[in-house]
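Progress note, sequence design subtask.
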């Protein structure tokens, strides 16, 4: 019986060590916020039929997007490049590779590539099903 217990304990320790060393995933909080980048608080979300959309957007060198607004919550991750976002009242923020932007809701703005390589964004939207992702001015 003593050998059986030693065997079980040894197997348990081996499994535990294998399990601990097999889990090597890292997680880093890139953004946790209750407001957009200009400090406007998010309003209480009332979504009856939620729809989540994820876009990959590429903005070429010297390109700028049209003036637009979002009527839903969205978060942009800058995967590559340098992005400058400018509001219609000239507030401005510049983001670099690896940074995250809690986009404006209901306020007109546009983004432009201010670097020397294409900007690659991954943008996550959540809102009521059927709501346009953006509305041009």
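Output:
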């Amino acid at each position: 019986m003593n050998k059986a217990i030693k065997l079980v304990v040894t197997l348990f320790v081996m499994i535990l060590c294998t399990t601990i060393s097999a889990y090597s995933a890292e997680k880093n909080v890139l953004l946790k916020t209750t407001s957009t980048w200009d400090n406007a608080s998010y309003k209480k979300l009332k979504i009856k039929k939620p729809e989540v959309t994820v876009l990959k957007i590429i903005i070429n060198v010297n390109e700028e997007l049209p003036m637009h607004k979002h009527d839903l919550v969205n978060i942009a991750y800058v995967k590559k490049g340098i992005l400058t976002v400018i509001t219609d009242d000239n507030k401005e923020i510049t983001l670099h590779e690896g940074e995250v932007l809690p986009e404006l809701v209901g306020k007109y703005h546009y983004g432009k590539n201010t670097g020397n390589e294409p900007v690659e964004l991954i943008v996550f939207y959540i809102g009521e099903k059927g709501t346009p992702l953006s509305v041009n001015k």
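The beta strands are 50-59, 68-69, 73-80, 82-87, 92-96, 100-102, 109-113, 119-128, 135-136. Work on this subtask will continue into the next period as scheduled.
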